[in-house]
Amino acid sequence: MINHEVRTYKSSESLAREDQLAWKIAEVASDDVAVETDVQDMVINRVIDNAAVAAASVRRGAPVHAREQAQGHPMKPGASVFGLSLDETISPEWAAWANGVAVRELDFHDTFLAKEYSHPGDNIPAVLAVAQHKGISGADVVRGLATGYEIQVDLVKGICLHEHKIDHVAHLGPSAAAGIGTLLNLPTEVIYQAVQQALHVTTATRQSRKGEISTWKAHAPAFAGKMAVEAVDRAMRGEGAPSPIYEGEDGFIAWILSGPEARYTVPLPGTGEAKRAIMDTYTKEHSAEYQAQALIDLARRMGRQIDDFSTIRRVTIHTSHHTHYVIGTGANDPQKMDPKASRETLDHSIMYMFTVALEDQAWHHEKSYAPERAGRPETVELWHKVETREDPEWTRRYHSTDPDEMAFGGRVEIEFEDGTTQVDEIAVADAHPNGARPFVRENYVNKFRTLAEGIVSEQEQNRFLDLAENLASLGSDDVRALGFAVEGLEHSGSKGIF
């Protein structure tokens, strides 16, 4: 890996195109290196993972509306949309939109956390939609996804967005554009322009993840993927972009990030170096914000040792800065303590999630968020006894680059009315590569079958899995069939413009 220093340049300063971050990203994308076997296998895992969470959400409001919007843009050859017949094909940018919302709706797919947060699986809908429309082979889909993951992870390692209240999808637009560039074997110049365009149009504030969190949280990455498809299309036609987008005097670093004096270091593979960043990422066993994964596992473990939850006086979660201030009591966000809050808000309240997992010793992507579950009087009472505190050591481990030290959990102290305490801690989720039960192919397949049960027929499940597990050897016709249909899908009856 090569560490690239990135800073603002005045317009009067000389900054060669080849020295710009967007160009260096484009060079990585256009570098035709072989995909290593373990990376290929992990790409397949994540394609299965995305389909699993999309199946579980296919009848929820946001995915239904996104799918209906997409149906207003039919195209041949086009791309498939989760839930629809494979014969009903959609313009690729709208297919990326609909599938992106379905994948993101339940906050249940893969994650990577470093200086910024990300869900790298958000690259898959855009890359796959373009592949289906353009008749691309499975081997090239794997190459494109390896690039998408690489660029997003590398940007996340080098550039923090959330400290400036910028949503993490600002890294997704460039990564998806780069992944599509690899998929289509585009020249560096074209990818360079597409990356810049994609960043320019996908930068937004983090209010989508604050206060009363709406379904836009699911739409935001889908929008970034849609914009990436459109950016590549424009760049292929010869259209340019604001440049230099990162380093310009009025650019991303100068006015949206830390200002003209700031320095960022972004690691990128050198020429001929394999793209392996997907191996640094991890998926979710539970449908919840990633910082909740380990603490849900800990709550399930601790709950099995408690006979009477009404005897709890206080629960204190000692954890990282991010967990405390984003999903903990440090957010000073009353909605996180409100039993009538939206599902999107509850899955950003560790106080709620820890309470329910403690009481139930389980976590379910629907039942654990149901209004009747959130509104139980005894749950609400216990929920309001939970608080988080930042612990410098957990913050340090959260930001560690050492895989053996990196931690996204915390230490929990439960104090009972009789003065006794129960204390336990967890560093990473059970499903994490360093966890108690790391996810392997069998777990991804089981996740798909579990979430698709009662929604996707067994025959259709088998057909999809057979294609997905052989992705690298698929021809273009089989890539076009890489989706699933759901019988009996109904329209919502909502009316819009399309």
Automatic annotation (TrEMBL):
Domain MmgE/PrpD C-terminal: 286-471
Entry-linked Gene3D superfamilies: 2-methylcitrate dehydratase PrpD
Domain MmgE/PrpD N-terminal: from-to ranges: 20-263
InterPro entries the record matches: MmgE/PrpD_sf, MmgE/PrpD_sf_1, MmgE/PrpD_sf_2, MmgE_PrpD, MmgE_PrpD_C, MmgE_PrpD_N
Domain of life: Bacteria
Pfam families: MmgE_PrpD_C, MmgE_PrpD_N
Similarity-based family: Belongs to the PrpD family.
Keywords (A to Z) from UniProt: Lyase
Protein name: 2-methylcitrate dehydratase
Organism in which the protein naturally occurs: Brevibacterium jeotgali
Catalytic activity as recorded in UniProt: (2S,3S)-2-methylcitrate = 2-methyl-cis-aconitate + H2O
Molecular function as annotated in GO: 2-methylcitrate dehydratase activity
The keyword Transport is assigned to this record: no
EC number: 4.2.1.79
Signal sequence region: none
Subunit-level organization: Monomer.
